Amino acid sequence: MEWHQIPLGLLQTNCYIVSKEDNTCLIFDPGEEGDKLSSFILENKLSPLAIILTHAHFDHIGAVEEIRETFNIPVYIHENEADWLIDPSQNGSQLFEIGKLVKGNRADYVLTNEKELKIGDFSFQIAETPGHSPGSLSFYFKEAGFVISGDALFSGSIGRTDLPGGNHAQLLKSIHEQLLILPEETIVLSGHGPATTIGQEMDSNPFLNGF
Predict the structure, then answer these.
(1) What is the pTM of this model?
(2) Helix (H), strand (E), coil (C) string for the chain
(3) Which PANTHER family did the record assign (predicted)?
(4) Residue 76's closest CA among 35, 27, 148, 34?
(5) What is the pLDDT of residues 16-68, one digit of tens each?
């Protein structure tokens, strides 16, 4: 199994493509630049199976409809943000006046309390990590040794909590109870910036000290 990090859009939001040897793949957070993302998929002869969202802020969902239509694949999202895909006032594109309103169709699958998800030959664990947003999810690929954390945990930082639905104490609780319990060598694939590891953040992340 391989992962590919593709920064997209003005905020350079990390989209992740997780692929297997048979070239099937999952797409996490197609935030913008659908043409760039499609080109990467086609050039590498990948076969997408689904779009999976860590959360539904505009910079993580801007290319959802384009990619969904291009490859005819379903979209997965947490129930607490199911309406955000169709509502610019909730996904932040209206609040931040980014030049366009991000508004699409509803997700095909709404996740509630699932702890594991199987799509094709992919199987991975789901952890609810709210705080940055109420429906934030992290996805742990145990055998491959990485977790896609969205905007919960970054290299040397954590997600902002000053947006509607954000909660600083809740985010710290999510990180400590859902992410820092993973093996220290686990690679953390964040929504922005470089990859890190659980161990590195436990040792040096200033936002986690003294919790």
Answers:
(1) 0.96
(2) CEEEEEEECCCCEEEEEEECCCCEEEEECCCCCHHHHHHHHHHCCCEEEEEECCCCCHHHHCCHHHHHHHHCCCEEEEHHHCCHHHCHHHHCCCCCCCCCCCCCCCCCEEECCCCEEEECCEEEEEEECCCCCCCCEEEEECCCCEEEEECCEECCEECCCCCCCCCHHHHHHHHHHHHCCCCCCCEEEECCCCCEEHHHHHHHCCCCCCC
(3) HYDROXYACYLGLUTATHIONE HYDROLASE GLOC
(4) 27
(5) 999 999 999 999 999 999 999 999 999 999 999 999 999 999 999 999 999 99
CA angle at 179 for the pair 18 and 53, rounded to the nearest 5°? 40
Over residues 164-197, the pLDDT tens digits come to: 899 999 999 999 999 999 999 999 999 999 999 9
Could you give all domains of the chain from N- to C-terminal order, each with its CATH number?
2-204 (3.60.15.10)
What Rg, from alpha-carbon coordinates, does the chain have? 16
